[in-house]
């Protein structure tokens, strides 16, 4: 498929609601190239495949919070229908309901985005635990702390700093 959506674009559409990483039905429908109404109809026809741990309907309060935080959901503001949220497993189950080639390719990209997000969280957790371990040893060994600070700083500094600044804009001929 020539128009694969970058994982970063999909990752931006993943939210944490009720302590779970989920995607909203409207975003999924846009990615799959179908109307949200049609996506939800397909899900309802296959309701046994989508128990509460794979998909749940947002409350009015959750919907309002989503609309307030994301401009792309403003059309939901006055809708009487509450959106559905799909967990990672729910998104994977969608591939068995939506059977087009586009749906299959988009589904693969979405699963990759969830995997990438999980890896980032694990890496972040490992760094947090390492820092907590250093905090407990503050008085014991000052040299270890200095080494750790230098290591953290080296992670935060960009690998290839710009060598020279490129001037942008128009330069009048008399100043050249």
Count the helices. How many? 7
The portion of residues assigned to helices is 40-55%
Major beta-sheet overview = 4 strands, antiparallel
Give the terminus-to-terminus CA distance.
49 Å
Mean pLDDT: 77
Strand order of the largest sheet: 1-2-4-3
Structural class designation:
alpha+beta
Give the CA-based shape.
extended
* Radius of gyration of CA atoms, rounded to a whole number: 23 Å
Could you tell me the strand content as a percent range? 5-15%
Q: What's the order of the H and E elements?
A: HEEHHEHEHHH
Low-confidence stretches: none
Report on this model:
The protein has 176 residues and is an alpha+beta fold. The chain is extended and about 65 Å long. It has seven helices and four strands, in the order αββααβαβααα.
Task: Briefly say what this structure is.
The chain has 176 residues and is of the alpha+beta class.
Q: What brief labels describe this structure?
A:
7 helices; 4-stranded antiparallel sheet
Secondary-structure blueprint:
Blueprint: H1 7-11, E1 14-17, E2 20-24, H2 25-32, H3 36-45, E3 55-57, H4 60-69, E4 84-87, H5 88-97, H6 101-136, H7 142-156
Antiparallel strand pairs: 1-2, 2-4, 3-4
């Amino acid at each position: 498929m020539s128009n694969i959506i970058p994982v970063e674009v999909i990752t931006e559409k993943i939210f944490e609601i009720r302590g779970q990483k989920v995607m909203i039905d409207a975003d999924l429908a846009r990615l799959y190239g179908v109307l949200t109404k049609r996506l939800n109809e397909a899900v309802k026809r296959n309701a046994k495949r989508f128990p509460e741990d794979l998909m749940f309907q947002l409350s009015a309060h959750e919907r309002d919070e989503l609309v307030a935080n994301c401009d792309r959901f403003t059309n939901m503001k006055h809708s009487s229908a509450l959106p559905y949220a799909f967990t990672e497993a729910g998104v994977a189950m969608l591939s068995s309901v939506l059977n087009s080639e586009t749906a299959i390719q988009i589904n693969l990209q979405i699963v990759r985005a969830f995997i990438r997000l999980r890896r980032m969280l694990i890496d972040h957790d490992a760094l947090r635990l390492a820092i907590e371990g250093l905090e407990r040893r503050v008085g014991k060994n000052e040299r270890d702390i200095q080494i750790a600070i230098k290591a953290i700083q080296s992670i935060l500094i960009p690998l290839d700093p710009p060598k020279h600044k490129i001037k942008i804009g128009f330069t009048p001929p008399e100043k050249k």
